Amino acid sequence: GAVVSQHPSWVICKSGTSVKIECRSLDFQATTMFWYRQFPKQSLMLMATSNEGSKATYEQGVEKDKFLINHASLTLSTLTVTSAHPEDSSFYICSARDPPGGPTDTQYFGPGTRLTVL
Amino acid sequence: QQQVKQSPQSLIVQKGGISIINCAYENTAFDYFPWYQQFPGKGPALLIAIRPDVSEKKEGRFTISFNKSAKQFSLHIMDSQPGDSATYFCAASRGGADGLTFGKGTHLIIQP
Fold it and tell me: Rounded to whole angstroms, what are the CA distances from A27 to A97, B37, B67, B112?
Protein backbone atom coordinates (compact mmCIF):
# COMPACT_ATOMS: atom_id res chain seq x y z
CA GLY A 1 0.00 0.00 0.00
CA ALA A 2 0.90 3.65 -0.30
CA VAL A 3 3.21 4.85 2.44
CA VAL A 4 3.85 8.41 3.50
CA SER A 5 6.60 9.27 5.95
CA GLN A 6 7.32 12.39 7.95
CA HIS A 7 10.48 13.58 9.59
CA PRO A 8 11.00 14.37 12.35
CA SER A 9 8.29 12.61 14.34
CA TRP A 10 8.65 15.19 17.08
CA VAL A 11 10.62 18.38 17.59
CA ILE A 12 11.10 20.85 20.40
CA CYS A 13 12.39 24.31 19.58
CA LYS A 14 12.83 27.70 21.16
CA SER A 15 10.52 30.57 20.39
CA GLY A 16 11.73 32.59 17.41
CA THR A 17 13.52 29.76 15.64
CA SER A 18 12.48 28.00 12.43
CA VAL A 19 11.62 24.34 12.05
CA LYS A 20 11.46 22.27 8.86
CA ILE A 21 9.22 19.21 8.54
CA GLU A 22 9.60 16.78 5.65
CA CYS A 23 6.86 14.72 4.05
CA ARG A 24 7.78 11.92 1.65
CA SER A 25 5.71 9.54 -0.44
CA LEU A 26 7.78 6.36 -0.33
CA ASP A 27 6.28 4.15 -3.01
CA PHE A 28 4.39 6.45 -5.32
CA GLN A 29 4.72 9.83 -6.96
CA ALA A 30 2.50 12.51 -5.51
CA THR A 31 1.88 15.57 -7.61
CA THR A 32 -0.30 16.92 -4.82
CA MET A 33 0.39 16.89 -1.11
CA PHE A 34 -1.58 18.50 1.67
CA TRP A 35 -0.60 19.88 5.06
CA TYR A 36 -2.93 19.72 8.03
CA ARG A 37 -2.70 20.90 11.62
CA GLN A 38 -4.34 19.21 14.57
CA PHE A 39 -4.55 20.71 18.03
CA PRO A 40 -5.03 18.37 21.03
CA LYS A 41 -8.39 16.61 21.01
CA GLN A 42 -9.48 18.53 17.94
CA SER A 43 -10.01 17.73 14.30
CA LEU A 44 -7.61 18.12 11.41
CA MET A 45 -7.63 21.48 9.69
CA LEU A 46 -6.32 21.89 6.17
CA MET A 47 -3.52 24.44 6.04
CA ALA A 48 -2.37 24.31 2.45
CA THR A 49 -2.23 22.38 -0.78
CA SER A 50 1.18 21.72 -2.23
CA ASN A 51 1.59 21.03 -5.93
CA GLU A 52 4.88 19.84 -7.34
CA GLY A 53 6.70 22.59 -9.15
CA SER A 54 4.30 25.39 -8.27
CA LYS A 55 3.40 27.65 -5.38
CA ALA A 56 1.34 26.25 -2.55
CA THR A 57 -2.26 27.29 -2.07
CA TYR A 58 -3.03 28.36 1.48
CA GLU A 59 -6.36 28.15 3.28
CA GLN A 60 -7.95 31.30 4.58
CA GLY A 61 -6.34 32.42 7.81
CA VAL A 62 -3.05 30.56 7.30
CA GLU A 63 -0.06 32.88 7.03
CA LYS A 64 1.92 31.92 3.96
CA ASP A 65 4.99 33.83 5.14
CA LYS A 66 4.99 31.92 8.39
CA PHE A 67 4.32 28.45 7.02
CA LEU A 68 6.61 28.05 4.01
CA ILE A 69 5.83 25.09 1.79
CA ASN A 70 8.11 23.69 -0.88
CA HIS A 71 7.22 20.76 -3.16
CA ALA A 72 10.36 20.46 -5.24
CA SER A 73 9.97 16.82 -6.28
CA LEU A 74 7.22 14.29 -6.83
CA THR A 75 8.04 12.54 -3.57
CA LEU A 76 8.95 15.35 -1.18
CA SER A 77 7.16 18.33 0.30
CA THR A 78 8.52 20.40 3.17
CA LEU A 79 6.81 22.68 5.66
CA THR A 80 8.94 25.28 7.40
CA VAL A 81 7.48 27.02 10.42
CA THR A 82 9.33 30.33 10.58
CA SER A 83 9.82 32.33 13.76
CA ALA A 84 7.89 29.75 15.72
CA HIS A 85 5.91 30.78 18.77
CA PRO A 86 4.27 28.69 21.52
CA GLU A 87 0.87 29.03 19.80
CA ASP A 88 2.34 27.18 16.80
CA SER A 89 2.75 24.09 18.97
CA SER A 90 0.60 21.44 17.33
CA PHE A 91 0.53 18.13 15.51
CA TYR A 92 1.36 18.68 11.84
CA ILE A 93 0.25 15.98 9.44
CA CYS A 94 0.83 15.71 5.72
CA SER A 95 -1.00 13.65 3.16
CA ALA A 96 -0.21 12.64 -0.38
CA ARG A 97 -2.78 12.01 -3.03
CA ASP A 98 -2.96 9.23 -5.57
CA PRO A 99 -1.62 10.45 -8.89
CA PRO A 100 -4.22 11.77 -11.35
CA GLY A 101 -5.74 8.95 -13.29
CA GLY A 102 -5.18 6.51 -10.47
CA PRO A 103 -7.87 4.16 -9.19
CA THR A 104 -8.95 6.44 -6.39
CA ASP A 105 -8.52 9.95 -5.10
CA THR A 106 -7.31 8.59 -1.82
CA GLN A 107 -5.22 10.74 0.46
CA TYR A 108 -2.65 8.77 2.38
CA PHE A 109 -1.57 10.39 5.60
CA GLY A 110 1.82 10.49 7.22
CA PRO A 111 2.36 9.66 10.90
CA GLY A 112 2.50 13.31 11.92
CA THR A 113 5.07 15.58 13.53
CA ARG A 114 4.58 16.86 17.05
CA LEU A 115 5.96 20.42 17.32
CA THR A 116 6.50 21.97 20.73
CA VAL A 117 7.68 25.56 20.88
CA LEU A 118 9.08 26.66 24.23
CA GLN B 1 -19.00 27.67 8.94
CA GLN B 2 -18.68 24.00 9.75
CA GLN B 3 -19.16 22.21 6.49
CA VAL B 4 -19.14 18.67 7.90
CA LYS B 5 -21.03 17.97 11.12
CA GLN B 6 -20.25 14.75 12.95
CA SER B 7 -22.09 13.05 15.78
CA PRO B 8 -21.89 11.76 18.41
CA GLN B 9 -18.81 13.34 19.94
CA SER B 10 -18.21 10.21 21.99
CA LEU B 11 -19.65 6.71 21.90
CA ILE B 12 -19.42 3.66 24.13
CA VAL B 13 -20.37 0.29 22.65
CA GLN B 14 -20.21 -3.19 24.08
CA LYS B 15 -17.93 -5.72 22.42
CA GLY B 16 -19.74 -7.41 19.56
CA GLY B 17 -22.18 -4.55 19.13
CA ILE B 18 -22.68 -2.16 16.23
CA SER B 19 -21.04 1.26 16.35
CA ILE B 20 -22.78 3.96 14.32
CA ILE B 21 -21.35 7.39 13.59
CA ASN B 22 -23.17 9.99 11.55
CA CYS B 23 -22.09 12.91 9.42
CA ALA B 24 -23.91 15.62 7.52
CA TYR B 25 -22.46 17.96 4.95
CA GLU B 26 -23.55 21.26 3.50
CA ASN B 27 -21.53 21.73 0.34
CA THR B 28 -23.29 19.97 -2.54
CA ALA B 29 -20.06 20.14 -4.53
CA PHE B 30 -18.52 17.49 -2.27
CA ASP B 31 -18.22 14.21 -4.15
CA TYR B 32 -15.82 12.11 -2.08
CA PHE B 33 -16.55 10.96 1.46
CA PRO B 34 -13.90 9.00 3.36
CA TRP B 35 -13.76 7.80 6.94
CA TYR B 36 -10.51 7.79 8.86
CA GLN B 37 -9.44 6.07 12.07
CA GLN B 38 -6.88 7.74 14.31
CA PHE B 39 -5.06 6.42 17.35
CA PRO B 40 -3.43 8.84 19.82
CA GLY B 41 -0.22 10.33 18.48
CA LYS B 42 -0.66 8.77 15.05
CA GLY B 43 -1.74 9.99 11.66
CA PRO B 44 -5.22 9.09 10.42
CA ALA B 45 -5.65 5.87 8.48
CA LEU B 46 -8.24 5.46 5.74
CA LEU B 47 -10.95 2.95 6.59
CA ILE B 48 -13.41 3.22 3.74
CA ALA B 49 -14.65 5.83 1.29
CA ILE B 50 -17.70 6.37 -0.89
CA ARG B 51 -18.80 8.50 -3.82
CA PRO B 52 -22.35 9.83 -4.36
CA ASP B 53 -23.16 7.39 -7.15
CA VAL B 54 -23.69 4.55 -4.66
CA SER B 55 -25.82 4.43 -1.51
CA GLU B 56 -23.83 1.85 0.41
CA LYS B 57 -20.36 0.38 0.46
CA LYS B 58 -19.11 -2.45 2.62
CA GLU B 59 -15.56 -3.52 3.37
CA GLY B 60 -15.23 -6.23 5.98
CA ARG B 61 -16.84 -5.04 9.21
CA PHE B 62 -17.11 -1.44 7.99
CA THR B 63 -20.07 -0.11 6.02
CA ILE B 64 -20.78 3.39 4.75
CA SER B 65 -24.39 4.38 4.11
CA PHE B 66 -24.88 7.45 1.94
CA ASN B 67 -28.03 9.54 1.50
CA LYS B 68 -27.45 12.13 -1.17
CA SER B 69 -30.82 13.87 -0.86
CA ALA B 70 -30.38 14.31 2.88
CA LYS B 71 -26.68 15.13 2.51
CA GLN B 72 -25.82 12.60 5.17
CA PHE B 73 -23.54 9.62 5.46
CA SER B 74 -22.77 7.22 8.24
CA LEU B 75 -20.24 4.62 9.30
CA HIS B 76 -21.33 1.32 10.76
CA ILE B 77 -18.81 -0.90 12.50
CA MET B 78 -20.18 -4.39 12.89
CA ASP B 79 -19.05 -6.80 15.63
CA SER B 80 -17.13 -3.98 17.33
CA GLN B 81 -13.93 -5.06 19.08
CA PRO B 82 -11.81 -3.40 21.78
CA GLY B 83 -9.12 -2.82 19.15
CA ASP B 84 -11.59 -0.55 17.34
CA SER B 85 -11.37 1.92 20.22
CA ALA B 86 -10.05 5.08 18.55
CA THR B 87 -11.15 8.44 17.20
CA TYR B 88 -13.06 8.32 13.94
CA PHE B 89 -13.29 11.22 11.52
CA CYS B 90 -15.59 11.62 8.57
CA ALA B 91 -14.40 13.90 5.81
CA ALA B 92 -15.45 15.27 2.47
CA SER B 93 -13.79 16.81 -0.52
CA ARG B 94 -14.64 18.30 -3.85
CA GLY B 95 -12.89 16.11 -6.32
CA GLY B 96 -9.47 14.67 -5.85
CA ALA B 97 -7.61 17.92 -6.17
CA ASP B 98 -9.06 19.47 -3.04
CA GLY B 99 -7.98 18.93 0.52
CA LEU B 100 -10.31 17.22 2.95
CA THR B 101 -12.80 18.95 5.23
CA PHE B 102 -13.03 16.91 8.41
CA GLY B 103 -15.78 16.45 10.94
CA LYS B 104 -14.90 17.08 14.57
CA GLY B 105 -14.38 13.42 15.33
CA THR B 106 -15.99 10.70 17.42
CA HIS B 107 -14.16 9.11 20.33
CA LEU B 108 -15.24 5.48 20.26
CA ILE B 109 -14.73 3.15 23.20
CA ILE B 110 -15.51 -0.55 22.88
CA GLN B 111 -16.02 -2.13 26.26
CA PRO B 112 -14.91 -5.76 26.62
Answer: 12, 22, 35, 38
